[in-house]
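Re: the request from the purification team.
They wanted to know what the chain is likely to look like in 3D before they choose a buffer screen. I agreed to run a prediction and write the result into the notebook, where they can find it.
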Amino acid sequence: MFTETTSTNARPHRTGDGRRDVNAAAVLRTVLDHGPVARSRVAALTGLSPAAVSRQVVDLVRLGLLRERPELAAPGAGAVGRPQLPVDVDTGRIAVAGLHIGLPFTTFAFLDPRGNVLHRRELSNRGRTGAAVLRPLLARLPGLLDAVPDGRTVVGLGAVTGGAVDRERGLISRHDPLEWRDLPLGGLLAEATGLPVQVDNHARALAQAEILFGHPAARRSMVHLFVGHVVDAALAVAGTVHVGPASPTGDVAHLPVPDSDALCHCGRTGCLAVAASDTTLFEAAAAEGIVERPDRAELVAAVRAGHPGADRLVRRRAETIGRALALLADVVNPDLLVLTEHFAALDPAYLDVVRTEFARRSRLRRDAELVVAQRRGADVLAVAAGSAALGALYARPVHALTG
């Protein structure tokens, strides 16, 4: 599970059994942000003593998380304690695996410790829901894990999906499109793989990825909105992703969209979950004859071909998203709003539609540049999945690898 991220300018001295992990996390995070970086600089940034930094570096090198970079050392480096010998995050020895389980397909991936996708594969769910999605996936996982590239050691598995996820218990409390209720996903995956498993909501995992590897403003405060077959949001403040009581962050799925008459599973009409969802968008495109069947690839092709009907539908959804973001921004007033939505990432023109509607609707009159699209492109679901495991790794590196 994720724990609080230690700021690189915090002074993380603690007593008791947790001090080693807290200090290791501070050193690792500082090297992530500034590496290659000399130990002396790490000490200055963390407030740890040079001796403490050296001890943590030795441990983190042994665990495969850091590596020395003697080729980058300044002339004369290599004195006692090697204070000027640069260290960097080691991206060559270990990997985490990730699963993003969605409605049309499951994404399986390997990521290195800097969040780079080493391998990504999409597995069709063939229209299945419920246990019919999970059974074949559990059977295939050992073989998928055996394909880790470059002989790396897989040190953990992240599994993310939409809906209400209790990450403390590794439980999918509710995922309506997949027809999951109280599914003990973490335990099932751990039994199938023998790996430490971190389960989370995909919006929260992407917020964690943004904090670790993304926009600097994300570490102050951010809201992340995920729009796909499900609609989810996550909030982070001071480098920590918020988790509410019983694990849900909150539920934006049922925010009202006044001009929508789409029927939601909750029995009402006009909920954001259906007004902005991929399912509604693709079905509308099929109903209007823009595509032959409700399918993402077909609608993307129509948009790229300049089909006016496809453009109109995607722009209309972008306006809906912009209104939702304006409401979220007015309530939370974050430093950053990050949107994960396929068409905004595909074409900046659709992100501009979102921004324009956001600026028009926000009562706070926030700058439209506050809204950014995620920058991982086709790898976004893989990054979400792997970041569930990487968040745990960076929060408690020694515990994660020696457990």
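For the purification team: Residues 308-332 form the longest helix (25 residues).
Please add any questions underneath this entry.
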